[in-house]
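From the shared-data thread, chain only:
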Amino acid sequence: MSDSCQTVIDARRLESGRPNLTAFIVCLGCVVVLLDVSIVNVALQRISDGLGGRLSDLQWIVDAYTLAFASFLLTGGTAGDRYGNKQVFGVGFVLFTLASAFCGTANNLPILITARVIQGIGAALIIPCSLTLLNHAFDDPTRRAKAFGWWAGSGGVAVAAGPLIGGLLVNLFGWRSIFFVNLPIGMVALLLTIRYIREEKPLFGRRIDLAGQIVSLFALVTLITVLIEGTNWGWLSLPIIGLSVACLLLSLLFVLIEARQSDPMLPLTLFRSSQFSVATSLGLLLSFPFYGLIFTLSLYFQQVCHYTPMQTGLAFLPVTGLLTVMNVYAGQLAAKRGMRFPIVAGLAIGGVGFFWLAFAAQTGAGYATILLPLLSIGAGVPLILPPVASLVLASVDRPQVGLASATLNAGRQVGAAAGVAVLGSLVSAGHNFVAGFRIAMVVSGVIYIIGTFLAVRFLPGGADQRSASSNTVPPKID
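Structure, as tokens:
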């Protein structure tokens, strides 16, 4: 066989295998990004022991990543369209991998927190581009749908496995290993991206909303600073009052900018749909207590129960395992009963779990005492997100599906950052960690009651929802 024939055969093999390779690469990106949302929580106590710092510093370690992720998520999607999703996806991996190296070598908290911000920016470039690349890789709708399932499943497994993997790494190699593990993954993913992901034509007509991006970033930073530092600086102190006023003014300015932009990062017209507005609000309300729980519960296990990081990861396993199973059941339940039923059921079950946990958590209480309320939360939370995502996507025209999905998930990340800030501040407000933890769980239960009211009052139920949701595509972030 001639060299030219062999070259043609090799090229055909590469082209036929390219879609599956693309699916593997983008799933790898989804895993490494979402793993870092949860993996760091079990290492917080060891980071505090090594670098020092107050509880508010630990909140910033978590929220620096989440805040940057939320702030740049919408712009990341626009950048992918304008400059090419493959290129922006690759740049995201470069930033994420380099930032992970800086996190692992950080010798003080400011460097670690700054590196976490860069990690979050990298994540915000990876995630919006990943689903677009997946969509372009498959011409056959059936194969594309299966690839979407792999993508969503890999993200769910990453979030669920984060505490366990983090605990194992910290126990064996120390807290820096949770960041160093990203280095080989990032380098392999970058090389595979360059070699196998197909080039696409950029949409040069789309413009990045720089003014909206800057103003929204500062608005979120001032908000989270107030929520985290209010306890330390004093809620009536001049800096907190000044930052609160600044947050309000920046938020109003952002709305004015978006209303006047020809190509806004967040079109306000989306919120003319009450279904879209309520569903995105529920996404935020869902994330607030859940990610606040992961943060505070990790500290509860290590400071109150005196668990090692490995024991902490194992303690999360029943909850995270149930999350993965119930995510599948949520879709089946929505198909049978409509979108509203699993949302209301999940909010009710999860709310009961938070109130139950508030009364079960006590100094000296064993793990068995809090296991059932944790399982209640683990069963309720995953019933909510899949139908909420379907409602968001069903409420907009098909050309706006990607933007609606990104908006939902940016809101969820904002809710996660606010949850860590508020619930973390509650447990640090007094000298008794358990008392603060119980108050935080009551607040979480109240938020779920509010969510239940919104769902019952404003979301339609029945067959119309089932038919509307059948035309949607998967959301952009798990």
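The chain is about 80% helix and 0% strand.
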